[in-house]
Give the backbone structure.
Amino acid sequence: MKGLCLLGVLLLAEGVLHTAAKQFRDVMSHGRSSSHVRSHKKLHGWSPDQNQWNEKLYPFWEKGDPRWNDCWRGGKVVARLTSDSPALVGSNVTFAVNLQFPRCQKEDNDSNIVYDRICRNDSSDFSNEYVYNWTEWIDDCGWEICTSNNTHNVFPDGRPFPHHPGWRRRNFVYLFHTAGQYYQKTGGSSAIVSINTTNITLGKQMMVVSVYRRGHRTYVPVATASGIYVVTDQIPLYVNLSQKNDRNASDSVFIKDSPITFDVKIHDPSHYLNNSAISYEWDYGDGSGSFISNSPISTHTYTLQGNFSLNLTVQATIPVPCEPATPTPPLPTSPGATTQNSTSTANKTELTTPAITTKPPSNLDSPTSTGVMEDTPDGGCHIYRYGHYKTTISIVEGILQVNVIQMTSVQMTVAQGENSLVDFVVTCQGSLPTDACTIVSDPTCQVSQNVVCDPVEVTDQCLLTIRRAFNEPGTYCVNITLGDDTSQALASALISVNGAPGSSSRTVEGVLITSGFLVAFLIFVTLLLHKRYKEYKPIERSAEQVENREGLNVYFNNVKAVLFPGNNERDPLLKTKPGIV
């Protein structure tokens, strides 16, 4: 009788101890609801969080525990957790943890933590070179000796550290936890881990990481971090829209009668789709119909103004291993079923072939089955995944082209000094400009010497005369841009100015003269000259200012938006551009 009572007491004590032992789910939840209430599929290389946690070797502190204040010398360590989420189901998602040490501390080549004396200031007092000299701690400890010492080479679940040549430089233990499972590894001040998402539930998931440092008798917690990652069955993608002469692509406003380039970027950092056949179906929303291509880049020109809804559907045909075939059970037969069984040989074949494939919908606009498996002619199998993109863009009138049609030198009076004045007569196609800029550069068109921008007023016809002053003879690259709220176009010319040396001042001023024609319908046509007053006087064709071309040799070459391709033409300043010939 006494033996039975003693056995009962022992069993009860064992149950109490088992209940009191912490599990990984208790430690890694950090106050969140335990993940064991949900069932999770097995992640390759990960362990279930029901395993016991060695709290004696790896102490666990709740948030707010005062022991956190003394877990690291000289301050607080912060763990930065990042990921390359979102991840398409079946691909890998990668997590990176980087430790940020207190000010003036860093990791040396031996993974010891030392003081960075470069950042030392008057208030710094470094009595020792090391914050933590782990090399000295384990210098007399070979792998065989340290293996028998749990302080050095055992994870919280009791598994030994992996033996590799750099084990002495791995003084931190990283514990990752997600989907009811954990992964543990050693490392230096950073660690990276990747997970295949095939068995992870779609949607938002939580990744938690705890970091421990090496101690004399135990490992000491130094930081925790957590982050949300997303697993989706839709292909993650975005589209970059660009257009020549468009002033700001981010406002979704583009120019009529000018091609827009659509560049699809698929987010696939693990290269899961490298062997997949990918197609792109476009609907530009202007009634032009659907366009299917195998290229991620396409162009389209809108010929009407207005707002248009752009839709893109991407289909990826992904090769996968074939699942074991499950034959379809034969249909019950009866004496009266002879006619039905002989109606079609094709139908009979379909009924007796293993039903492991399903044809995906032919219309890609609204696919509903994103994981359909299908046989391929070569005997393999594949599944379909889809991605979608939708946006609304506005199409407006814009400046399509700028041309310099004439360049002439202007005779100057003695009072005007020795600067050489050149008039550039400029026209444009498309909408009327509201501002004009001239950029004078060196002959290679790479070093900008002077930039002048002014508002302009143009009525019915885009015709401008821009006067520029050159205070020294020589060869210059001149870029002229005309712009409005949504567009900006460029014309370039290379000129050589000959004549007497200019003044010592290297400041060049510019004058804009706008001219246009105002048409009075059914009555008359009146020419209206709009003069702009800047630091120079209005240009007048007086006897003292006659046209003189003897001192000016002009080499003229219209260079369109080649010098300012696509969206980069937002700033009229000329930067590293090729020379004009």
Observations:
- Residues 2-20 form the longest helix (19 residues).
- Residues 9-19, 334-369, 501-581 have pLDDT under 50 and may be disordered.
- The chain has seven helices and 31 strands.
